[in-house]
Amino acid sequence: MTIRVLLADDQDLLRHGFKMIIDAQPDMAAVGEAANGVQAIAQAAALRPDVVLMDVRMPGTNGIEATRHIAAHLPEVKVLILTTFDVDEYAFAGLHAGASGFLLKNARTEELIAGIRTVAAGDAILAPSTTRRLLDTYAGTFHAAGGGAPPKDVLAPLTQREREVFTEMTAGRTNQEIADRLVLSETTVKTHVARVLAKLRLRDRIQAVIFAYENGLTPPNR
Q1: Per the database record, which ranges form the HTH luxR-type domain (predicted)?
Q2: pLDDT, tens digit (0-9, with 9 covering 90-100), for 189-203
């Protein structure tokens, strides 16, 4: 199957560069381009791509608002945020709005391609250290502001094993790493992960981490 990608960025040269990289892959195709958030929303609705590469800062409707709209109205379309972490304080907002992950614009070609494939497969980009740094920054802000005590039954729908898997997930570990730590098969871990997400009504691992931080279940800088 070909992964259909929509490119949303206000810089023509960047869009052209991403298009060349994507079209060079045997399992991908760039099916459309957008220079702002309004165009990204319209193109996503018209083309129904598998993945939208979404810039955060664009004129008019920005990438965060466009992501929120796409996630709410086109849940089958996955959004992968592109950002410059050191200067873009809105990257977390993009994840919170419904993106399945984010990459830095200076990511290596292989990282970009792997990220697109990961998101298209229904998973979320969570492993890179920059993701942990971003989430830890948010967590510190949340806890400093007195995020409030989480409901005692917030994980009530989960079994004990699912709670263990949830804890490992929110530490940013892969299925294989979870399997090794809990002495389970990777297939069994995948089943538990799917059940955890379904029971907590979460879309993916990114939302699981956000859920954990917002409910005070994961201490910052762990």
Answers
A1: 151-216
A2: 999 999 999 999 988
Helices marked H in the chain? 12-23, 37-47, 63-73, 91-97, 109-120, 129-144, 160-169, 175-182, 186-199, 205-214
Tokens representing 190? Answer: 């995948």
Pull the structure tokens for residue 167.
């804890």
Which two tokens mark 214? 């917002």
Sheet with 102-104: strands ordered across: 28-34, 3-8, 51-55, 78-83, 102-104
pLDDT band of residue 141 (cuts 50, 70, 90) is low
Tokens of 175: 């299925």
Q: How many helices (H) and strands (E) does the chain have?
A: 10, 5
Going by C-alpha positions, the residue among 21, 64, 19 that lies closest to residue 40 is 64
Residue 2 DSSP class:
P
Asked whether the beta carbons of 61 and 55 are under 8 A apart, the reply is no
> How many beta carbons lie within 10 A of that of residue 110, not counting itself?
9
